[in-house]
Design a protein that fits this description.
By secondary structure, this protein is of the alpha/beta class. It contains 12 helices and 13 strands. The protein has 2 domains: about 170 residues, Rossmann fold (3-Layer(aba) Sandwich), CATH 3.40.50.720; about 160 residues, 2-Layer Sandwich (Dihydrodipicolinate Reductase, domain 2).
């Protein structure tokens, strides 16, 4: 069977973008043999490191070798056809990529600059695959309409529970069910911090560890204040449950008010604090929130520890369906991007 080449432009090359490049390099032979596809990275662009574009593909090992030298792409070897310095928007608009992989940092105030990258790529008929929560949480309806109008795909599995397929489960595997509620542990960093604090570590040490392991957002305030979980609640509400919620309609409280004493008291009482995101449809009304909840240990969500996430969907035909799996981390998030790329 003939192998098809699928070209990718990566906007962003931090923890997640680099993890995707490593996975592609490691799995290239399997992808060719089992799926008859070759994934070719034609462009990478990031504000700190510079940008590279080669319509015939970049060498992944050489990208990492250049980064090793000085943290930028300056040392990537020149070759005929290689171009440097294209802007993110130029790559989204004019590169030969089939799919733009938007993996820049999430901004939950404006969604920018990722929102413009997505709009530009989709309006040129390029698919967009993203782990960036901003554009999906703030503009899902617009972007999916733009994708449909331009015969392109807009996929974002890794925005919720990283590569654990909580969106695909609801949108495809549970097709035909009405999902009337979702309740979940949607932020890996805070669940990790709560787990570490229960084991006696301090909040500051636990947060620093979550940052060093690549779980936290660029600005971890988004994690600990519940904003990251709020973004995920919005995505599930709008992209899975057919709501039209805005972020101001979701009450939001993070874990910063929880003290070591609160956590110890819960443990002594056979309970556990968890940061819970939920959405519930009742009649024409939608209620959504993010807040710390004191759960009895008999609650399945109380048993979800570390960076693991969990989502329970309430369905009309199957009752409750729960999915538990990785919720943060470079490789874990890139796994969702790869699944989206293969879906395309
Ligand atoms: N900072 C996020 C978390 C990354 O900790 O869950 C995954 O979205």
């Amino acid at each position: 069977m003939k192998t098809t080449t699928h070209r990718l432009a990566l906007i962003g090359f931090g923890t997640v973008g680099q993890a995707l490049a490593k996975i592609i390099a490691a799995k290239q032979a399997d992808l060719k043999q089992l799926r008859h596809i070759r994934l070719q990275i034609v462009a990478v662009a990031t504000p700190g490191k510079g940008s590279l574009y080669h319509p015939d593909g970049l060498d992944i090992a050489a990208l990492f070798a250049a980064l090793e030298k000085d943290g930028t792409f300056a040392g990537y070897p020149d070759s005929p056809g290689l171009e440097r310095g294209w802007s993110n928007l130029a790559l989204a608009r004019d590169s030969n990529a089939d799919t733009v992989v938007e993996v820049s940092h999430t901004d939950m105030t404006t969604g920018q600059p990722a929102l413009d990258h997505c709009r530009t790529a989709l309006s040129r008929g390029k698919n967009v695959v993203t782990s960036n929560k901003g554009p999906v949480a703030l503009a899902y309806a617009d972007l999916s309409a733009l994708a449909a109008a331009n015969n392109a795909r807009f996929l974002f599995e890794s925005t919720v529970t990283a590569g654990t397929p909580s969106l695909r489960l609801a949108r495809h595997a549970l097709a035909g069910n009405e999902i009337t509620a979702m309740r979940g542990i949607l932020n890996g960093t805070t669940n990790f911090i709560l787990t570490e604090m229960e084991a006696g570590r301090s909040y500051a040490d636990a947060l620093a560890k979550a940052q060093s392991l690549g779980y936290a957002e660029a600005d971890p305030t988004a994690d600990v204040e519940g904003i990251d979980a709020l973004a995920k609640v919005l995505i599930v509400a709008n992209a899975v449950m057919g709501c039209a919620l805005t972020k101001d309609e979701i009450s939001c409280r993070g874990i910063t008010q929880l003290t070591a004493d609160d956590i110890a008291a819960a443990k002594a009482a056979g309970k556990r604090w968890k940061l819970i995101g939920q959405v519930e449809k009742q009649g024409g009304q939608v209620e959504a929130s993010v807040q710390p909840v004191l759960l009895p240990l008999s609650d399945p969500l109380a048993q979800v520890m570390g960076t693991t996430n969990a989502v329970t969907y309430r369905t009309d035909l199957l009752g409750d369906v729960t999915l538990v799996g990785a919720g943060a981390g470079g490789i874990e998030t890139a796994a969702g991007l790869l699944a989206d790329i293969l879906a395309i």
